[in-house]
Specification:
By secondary structure, the protein is an alpha+beta fold. Helix content is 32%, strand content 23%. The protein has one domain: 2-Layer Sandwich (Alpha-Beta Plaits), CATH 3.30.70. The two termini are 26 Å apart.
Length: 111
Amino acid sequence: MSAPTALCLYRVSPGREAEFTELLKRHWPTLHALGLVTDDRPLHYQGAERDGRPLFVEIFRWVSEAASRLAHEHPEVMAIWEPMDKITEARAGRPNMEFPHVQPIEVVQSA
């Protein structure tokens, strides 16, 4: 099985978007410098939930299943994750941040 892709959903508190963006700018580069993610550049999206409150999405690939667990041991990563936690909010029974790991599947056959 290949290394997992992380789909990161961040429910940012209204008015904190610029502050969150500054943290997000440091997130992948920090993970990459520590050798925890692949060289594939991350994808970032900004939108809103149904109620209009800000939602950010980040997509990247870990180098291994263990890398996501190892990230919790690095002070450099925690220096980003802890402030992220403080400027995000739980909504509609969902946590402030979610990190499902997914694997690609072939659905549409190439022509």
